[in-house]
């Protein structure tokens, strides 16, 4: 395996965990760390995980991106609510050969990176996982962990390069031939379930499945997201579509196995942090409206979530 | 003026205030009191109001309806979330000649009273007011106060009898030729504004007007309520309709004059009390669905409000 220099921009729970797994696999990983800088410098990065606990002793940590400098890969794992900071944080790590994996939630994020740094080097990563930060220097990986990766231009050779980065790691990586479809498919879960878990007052996903009204609302929202996603795929000339019936069946079945699951957006809400509303709800809503897809439920839900997010 | 024996069932803020105004006008008013029984017995019922403060010394207070017995009028001012208690609390006060004013919020309440006690004696009252309870024995009337009264069968002679009850009082009374339309018209305000003030996290009405997304949501909800109301009026063979454009104009204009208004349902929410969701949202939603009126926004809002109401 080739060792790559990798810059992790936004080494919170998700960035810290996946960066640590890449370092564990032998890559030269640099973490841009804010909150935990002193703890990680002093005692390393400690990861608990069902896939094996481990400690990264003496990781490369930096307080600013200039200290890291150009890397072969940048993994941007900022919260999408910090998108306005991404350009200046990522730029010092980008040289002509750098590739960028946007490991963030929501729609339209890769477009920004492509605009800043060029289309061909941008990838999107969709993490299906449950990871929390513990006390300084600790990351708790609780469940799941698969990352689905797509290339911004859906270039198969580039996608192979991205997959090879992870080949020696303990992370399960899936590839998608259509990043756009993958983003919409993730929204098919996030919009109804994360959205309703917040708007219904900070509840767990099982409460949605057991409440007739909320379950119907989740179904209506998913219908709208699928319709909007397929209109967006068609508009962009993509041949792939989201299979309506199969998606609904799969998302509700998967959710029923998750028990009293707390989506990260709901955790942000109940713990008083900014939620990723714009990229997860606002942008899909805007696209749906531009494409003329009726999205009454999504429209009301987004207005409520924006208000819940800014009213704090 | 003839003095009537009046039983106030549910002498909270609204029942206490309007009952006190009727007693002030010379009627023989009996209050069914729970929380404030001892305070009112000891020191009377104290009312502060922009229409004049006053104290009702030695009011007739009762701990149960049997102590009151048959009255000429029963004013039921329970919260609609206590509808299941209304029959047993009202029945001891009903004799063949008793008339019943249902001074409660929401749709379909008079139908219950008509089923229990007979159609001809039932009236509906819609209070547009802001009244809070203070410490035991105190009621604070803060603003507004008009009550619109209709007869369950829209019988003009019966309606005159109801109006005459209030003729010597300081309360402004309006009559409506169509109780059904009046109920729907009130919902045109309550559903968008009370509903969104709760679902957006406990905000005041001015926040809805100043937020593009919430204002659009309020408009969409009002559209749906007007359409459902008109379908319901048509279904019941009524000639009257809600004027769509005039209603929207009037409701938004009125709301813009109200400032940072806290709807009673929002106060219930932020203070942790049961909200009147079923009669104000659930029943209109059910009627709209039965009539085949599309109500996507109302459907999602109602599901969220039910969850917020039961999740506490």
Describe this structure in words.
- The structure is a homodimer of 312-residue chains.
- Chain A is of the alpha/beta class.
- The first copy, chain A, has two domains: 5-176, Rossmann fold, CATH 3.40.50.720; 180-309, N-(1-d-carboxylethyl)-l-norvaline Dehydrogenase, domain 2 (Orthogonal Bundle).
- The first copy, chain A, has helices at residues 13-24, 37-43, 65-68, 83-90, 109-117, 156-165, 179-199, 205-210, 212-235, 244-256, 264-270, 277-290, 296-310; strands spanning 5-9, 28-32, 45-48, 54-56, 60-62, 73-76, 99-102, 122-133, 138-151, 173-175.
- In chain A, strands 1, 2, 3, 4, 5, 6, 7, 8, 9 and 10 form a ten-stranded mixed β-sheet that branches.
- In chain A, helix 7 runs antiparallel to helix 9 (212-235) and helix 12 runs antiparallel to helix 13 (296-310).
- Chain A is globular, with a radius of gyration of 19 Å.
- The A-B interface holds A 196, 199-201, 203, 207, 211, 213-214, 216-217, 220-221, 296-297, 299-304, 306-308, 311 and B 196, 199-201, 203, 207, 211, 213-214, 216-217, 220-221, 296-297, 299-304, 306-308, 311.
Per-chain topology:
Two copies of one chain form a homodimer.
Chain A lengths: L4 E5 L3 H12 L3 E5 L4 H7 L1 E4 L5 E3 L3 E3 L2 H4 L4 E4 L6 H8 L8 E4 L6 H9 L4 E12 L4 E14 L4 H10 L7 E3 L3 H21 L5 H6 L1 H24 L8 H13 L7 H7 L6 H14 L5 H15 L2
Parallel strand pairs in A: 1-2, 1-6, 2-5, 3-9, 6-7, 7-8, 9-10
Antiparallel strand pairs in A: 3-4, 8-9
Helix pairs in contact in A: 7-9, 7-11, 7-13, 9-12, 12-13
